[in-house]
Amino acid sequence: MEQEKGRYLYGVAASERATRLGPLGIEGRDVYTITYEDFCAIVHNCPNEPYQSNDEEIVKSWVSAHQGVLDEAKERFGVVIPFGFDTILQPGDEATSPDQVVKDWLKGDYERLRSIMKKIRDRDEYGVQIFYKSSLIGRQIAEQSKEIQKLKAEIAMKSPGMAYIYRQDLEKVAKAEMEKLADSWFKDCYGRIRPDCDDIVIEKTRKADGDRVMLLNLSCLVHKEKVDSLGRGLEEINNMDGFSVHFSGPWPPYSFVARAVVPVKGE
Amino acid sequence: MAIDIREDNLKAGVLGLVLALVEIIRDALKIQAFKRIESGILSQEECERLGKALMDLDIALEEIKEEQGIIESVQAVRDGLDDIVDGVIDRIANPERWQEETKAGS
User: Fold this and answer.
1) Among the listed residues A37, A33, A30, the one whose alpha carbon sits nearest the alpha carbon of residue A18
2) Of A1, A89, A177, A224, which is the most exposed, with the fewest CB atoms less than 10 Å away?
3) If you count residue pairs, one on A and one on B, with CB atoms under 8 Å apart, how many are there?
4) Domain extent for B85
């Protein structure tokens, strides 16, 4: 096993017993734990390079195996600090054994790992995306805004060229109103969600399909006793006219374990 | 990695890029035109002609996109550019990003 100098890291759990989890790893690798004090790293042996492929199906199967190992580890150990796909620890020199690298890292990062462990105990990550229908909201704005109505009345009396120029103005005003509204909705929705979460990461909004606009995209760290309450709050938002909510999870709390301070290949 | 080029794919890509650029130039023109109109130096008749010309340009561009079936690819180019510009502005406007970058690079 000359080339198997890397240790592919799935996560860190609180357990002082070395455990074998069996061949559940990526490509059926044997997954086991390397311990330091009362922590253990969940790993498999791998060559010193990241898993890479242009085949989406293969990547999917890897990621799903990664997820599967984390699920199994959570069953066994209770709390697991998840690490991202393709986190590989490797010795910096010939003299250190790969297992020692993992131990040294656990030792060096012990306090940080402990505080993360405390933070995520009994909690899971949930994804919350809230969308609104821009056409519906646009109609509402047009009906309510005096400025827009005035512009519309003026346009109706203009010659084609001038009407075009006024229409551009109209679009600008409507857009500004929409942004103002979106801003207040954002605050409102965030305010409703916040009390049920221990922590929230505001993610970048993505382009949605067709008429839907993503208003907010959150990763929420939620205690298992607060999940129902969060769900009810989201249900209320989902029932509002023109709004829809996408609620997913529970996920391993990837967004709340910060970036791994690990000597990863390629950095 | 091999790049997959099919004839229709390439055509949509190049045309999409060209049209996206034309649209961006048009948008810049529009901004300048509206500044002139708002400044009051143009006569009523000149405003009318300018408005009409811009409208015709809009219609022509929409027709070309529709005919060539490249509405999506034009939008994709513009979205891509938007993302790049967003990223650049975010970095310029938020000094803490510089620190993050330096950290990541070290």
Assistant:
1) A33
2) A1
3) 32
4) 70-106
